[in-house]
Design a protein that fits this description.
By secondary structure, the chain is mostly helical. It has seven helices and four strands, in the order ββββααααααα. Helix content is 62%, strand content 6%. Helix 4 packs across helix 5 and helix 5 packs across helix 6.
């Protein structure tokens, strides 16, 4: 569900054809058969009225259209976009962890799916909009999410080793981040870097391609 840009407690039912902000039934307005927000509809009506008043004078019509200010698009909700991207990243990390647990193989290619879910989440949280800022946000979230997936896999492997060798496991059930960094750092190689880069690229693509 994408909430309305004006009434956050309501679900959106349409998008403004001009500024693309999500709208609910209360704040959507129809102008010339198309749906707009109240701000854009009022601006279009004003411009239409100026054209009508200037009828008969082509130069005046051209001046009125050229000088009429265009209402700025609604600001992108970076907070909601970050939340949706983080949820996508968490889902991707858990799926990656589940695949490794079931197959007992570290399939790095699954990291690409993490980037895709993060990118889609960022765009969804922004109401279908994108831009360079959202793309950078998605890349950061994707890298953190892939790191979280790596931590879950490493934690699973270490706890399994401890159980097999009758070593007391941490009471919390999770290894320390210091231990994770040391063990993971030793095995980090070129292919890990490649999969991180591909996952980050997938996270970048969707917000970068979406309309700002």
């Amino acid at each position: 569900m994408i909430p309305c840009a004006t009434h956050a407690e309501r679900a959106s039912t349409a998008f403004c054809r001009r500024c693309e902000r999500p709208l609910c039934d209360v704040c959507s307005t129809t102008f010339a058969g198309k749906t707009y927000c109240e701000t854009c509809a009022a601006d279009l009506e004003r411009r239409a009225e100026e054209r009508y008043q200037a009828a008969g004078d082509p130069a005046a019509i051209a001046r009125s259209v050229a000088s009429a200010p265009i209402s700025p698009a609604a600001p992108v909700s970076y907070g909601r976009s970050l939340l949706y991207a983080a949820l996508g990243g968490a889902l991707g990390a858990l799926i990656w962890f589940a695949v490794v647990t079931v197959t007992d193989l570290k399939l790095g290619i699954v990291a690409i799916g993490v980037g895709i879910l993060v990118g889609r989440g960022a765009v969804l949280g922004a109401g279908g909009r994108g831009g360079q800022g959202l793309a950078l946000l998605a890349v950061g979230v994707a890298i953190v999410a892939m790191g979280a997936g790596e931590y879950l896999m490493m934690n699973h492997a270490v706890l399994k080793y401890m159980a097999e060798h009758q070593i007391a496991a941490p009471a919390s059930g999770f290894i320390s981040f210091d231990l994770f960094a040391k063990v993971y750092g030793r095995g980090f190689g070129l292919m890990d870097l490649v999969f991180y880069a591909i996952g980050a690229h997938q996270a970048w693509r969707q917000p970068a391609a979406a309309p700002a």
